[in-house]
Amino acid sequence: MTVDTYPNHRQQEIVTALRRAGGSLRVQALARELDVTEETVRRNLKKLARNGIVEKVHGGARLSELEDEGDFRQRLAVNPAAKQVIAKQVAALIDNGSSLFLDVGSTTSYIADALRGHENLLVVTNSVSVAYKLSMRNNNRVFMAGGELRAHDGGAFNTHAMEFANNFKTDFAILSAVGINDADGFVLLDLDEAEFSRAIINNARTCIIAADSSKFQRKAPITICDPSEIQILVTDCAPPPSLAKAVAKWGVKTVVAN
Asked: Domain locations in the chain?
């Protein structure tokens, strides 16, 4: 499976439209926004509903509560102990003087906290939280993507941000995922985030996914990349057998933080 084969682009557009609208829309509104027929919307909603990504409601659909991660402050408050343990483990993999990219995930924000004792880092990020925590300390150099910051997570995603990211070749890319499942690999809800992550992966020597065990076997509509492009998964618990088998098949090293 590749990022182009599952799910289709129309389903990605539907989920993105639902997120922009706060989580729910009527079929008519989705059809109008995407410039497609209502039947096209209904057909794609059926598959998204079967995968547990959306819930069908009368006349429309909404993102499933499990998959709608909420705003950044809410996400920081979910599984904080696990995220802190993961963050400490990731920080132990990073040497002083390394160059790294950090994305907008809540776990990544904890990783920025864990890196505060490091020195001479070159940090590339599109997260205002990460930039604030690591800039102006220990001779770090922090490069922040420009453009409008999204209200719900303080992340910059636009054409200029993509062009900015392509200026850097980093030792590490440290990325988030809303789900990891043996069928689809590492997945996200947001197409902009996935496209940005793909650009970063192409420019990093070592790619790390940091995700707590609540993400195991969760589904989302957008694959980040071919899972074999990731070198390390850092998590708080060993994956269940079927997922562990898949991760090993992808050639990804699992590091369980303790």
From this structure: 9-63, 72-256
Q: Which residue type, as a one-letter code, is found at position 64? A: S
Token readout for 246 is 């898949």
Specify the pTM.
0.72
pLDDT surpassing 90 at residue 203: yes
User: What's the topology of domain 9-63?
Assistant: Arc Repressor Mutant, subunit A (1.10.10)
Closest among 99, 91, 67 to 177, alpha carbons compared: 67
* Element housing 110 (H / E): helix 106-114
* Integer Cα distance of 108 and 88 in angstroms: 11
Is the four-CA dihedral 13, 8, 101, 106 of positive or negative sign? positive
Q: Which fold has domain 72-256?
A: Rossmann fold (3.40.50)
Q: Residue-wise over 114-136: b if at least 16 C-beta within 10 A, else e?
A: bbeebeebbbbbbbbbbbebbee
